């Protein structure tokens, strides 16, 4: 089965620049077919690989999975001293596991096509280095065919629900995507204000029913509602700060999204469960020094991260606008790519990443020789490494926490609070 690829209209560039970050950070899970193919490549006859264990089994009892082995923090066993993949160098790209061939691309089944997204955990994606994504379409098609075969997709998936039991078909779901895109594309409005406007639209749409509103009528409805929201959209500095409960739920989400338990950027997890328990307590209390759940977290107090940004700039705005547009237009925020969340629940979860990224940027700004844009790029990489992947983000508890933040108005307040800059409005 072959499906066309829908490339993002937003300007997002990428090319591999050989940083080898993905080869060092991630343990690649293999299908039985991939394991058998690599085992048959004769690596036991290679002098550099003699005696090297190629695979490891991890997991619990009947749920164990096979992964490519790692040399500790040195990365995948197939990563050579020149920073190249031995499998790729010897047998070509198609001999590698599909996960390696695809990264950092994400293929999202959407109706009769696959939407192409990217993971901002890759430095080249975050820095927007390379050629436009559409120039990778031809090369991606072969990987897309292998992806469809691997997941056993034989017919189009149903679209994710809007919220609860409320559903629309794919064409109407894309109308909602376009409505959010039009808001985010307004460069005359700060990103934080665009996001708060989409949140207001989300709240209104959750209360509406769309069984009899479809196609052009739905487009017209969303245009009218979006235009009316500008009238009531408050400036960030006029909103009250988040409530105590809002701050608590925010910090608990932050603890999940900055946590790194493996690879060279491993944080407190290296010191064991008691260290993680102590970190959890400090995130609940929100006092003292922020626990280094990621290697890059410098010594910084929770209180320091509540101060306004001193030198936020247009480059930072453009970077975050691109990040949210890519997530939106690729549908990486809902459905199968984000714990099967509904459209609006997934959007709220993504919106929570904005204050979290700004909060983390304040911390990383304190690293030596780091300006705000560099700190922001690192922050996005850390957060996006976990968004849609860390299992704690998909729990009922976390979904309930995001719902509370949205219903109580704390999500809007958090977005505005961490968007503050140290200048007069």
Keywords:
425 residues, mainly alpha, 3 domains, three-stranded mixed beta sheet, 16 helices, globular
Proportion of residues in helical segments: 40-55%
Low-confidence stretches: none
> Based on helices, strands and strand pairing, what is the structural class?
mainly alpha
Main sheet characteristics: 3 strands, mixed
Would you tell me the overall average pLDDT?
Answer: 92
In brief, what are we looking at here?
By secondary structure, the chain is mainly alpha-helical. The chain contains 16 helices and eight strands. Strands 1-7-6 form a three-stranded mixed sheet. It has a three-stranded antiparallel sheet with strand order 3-5-4. A two-stranded antiparallel sheet has the order 2-8.
What does this entry look like structurally?
The protein is mainly α and 425 residues long. It folds into three domains: 147 residues, no CATH class; 68 residues, no CATH class; 179 residues, no CATH class. The chain contains 16 helices and eight strands. The chain starts with a strand and ends in an 8-residue tail after the last helix.
């Amino acid at each position: 089965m072959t499906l066309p690829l829908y490339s993002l209209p937003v300007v997002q560039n990428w090319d591999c620049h050989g940083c080898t970050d993905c080869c060092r950070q991630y343990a690649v899970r293999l299908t039985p077919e991939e394991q058998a193919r690599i085992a048959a490549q004769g690596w036991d006859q290679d002098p550099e690989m003699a005696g090297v264990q190629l695979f490891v089994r991890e997991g619990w009892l009947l749920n164990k999975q096979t992964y490519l082995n790692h040399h500790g923090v040195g990365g995948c066993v197939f990563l050579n001293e020149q920073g190249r993949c031995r499998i790729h160098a010897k047998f070509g790209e198609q001999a590698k596991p599909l996960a390696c061939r695809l990264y950092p691309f994400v293929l999202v089944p959407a109706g009769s096509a696959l939407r192409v997204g990217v993971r901002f955990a890759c430095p080249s994606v975050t820095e927007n280095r390379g050629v436009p994504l559409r120039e990778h379409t031809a090369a991606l098609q072969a990987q897309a065919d292998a992806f469809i075969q691997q997941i056993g997709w034989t017919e189009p998936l149903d679209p994710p629900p809007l919220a609860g039991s409320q559903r629309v078909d794919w064409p109407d779901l894309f109308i909602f995507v376009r409505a959010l895109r039009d808001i985010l594309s307004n460069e005359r409005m700060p990103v934080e204000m665009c996001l708060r406007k989409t949140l207001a639209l989300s709240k209104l749409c959750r209360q509406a029913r769309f069984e009899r509103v479809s196609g052009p009528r739905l487009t017209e409805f969303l245009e009218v509602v979006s235009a009316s929201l500008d009238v009531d959209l408050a400036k960030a500095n006029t909103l009250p700060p988040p409530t105590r409960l809002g701050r608590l739920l925010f910090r608990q989400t932050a603890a999940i999204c900055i946590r790194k338990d493996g690879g060279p950027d491993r944080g407190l997890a290296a010191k064991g469960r008691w260290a993680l328990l102590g970190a959890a307590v400090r995130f609940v209390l929100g006092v003292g020094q922020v626990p280094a759940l990621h290697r890059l977290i410098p010594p910084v107090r929770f209180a320091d991260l509540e101060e306004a940004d001193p030198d936020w700039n247009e480059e930072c705005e453009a970077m975050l606008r691109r990040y949210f547009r890519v997530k939106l237009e690729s549908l990486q925020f809902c459905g199968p790519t984000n714990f099967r969340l509904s459209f609006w629940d997934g959007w709220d979860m993504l919106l929570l990443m904005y204050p979290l990224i700004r909060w983390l940027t304040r911390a990383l700004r304190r690293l030596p020789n780091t300006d705000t844009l560099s700190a922001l790029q690192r922050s996005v990489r850390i957060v996006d490494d976990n968004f849609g992947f860390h299992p704690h983000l998909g729990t009922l508890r976390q979904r309930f926490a995001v719902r509370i933040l949205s219903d109580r108005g704390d999500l809007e307040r958090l977005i505005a609070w961490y968007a503050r800059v140290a200048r007069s409005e």
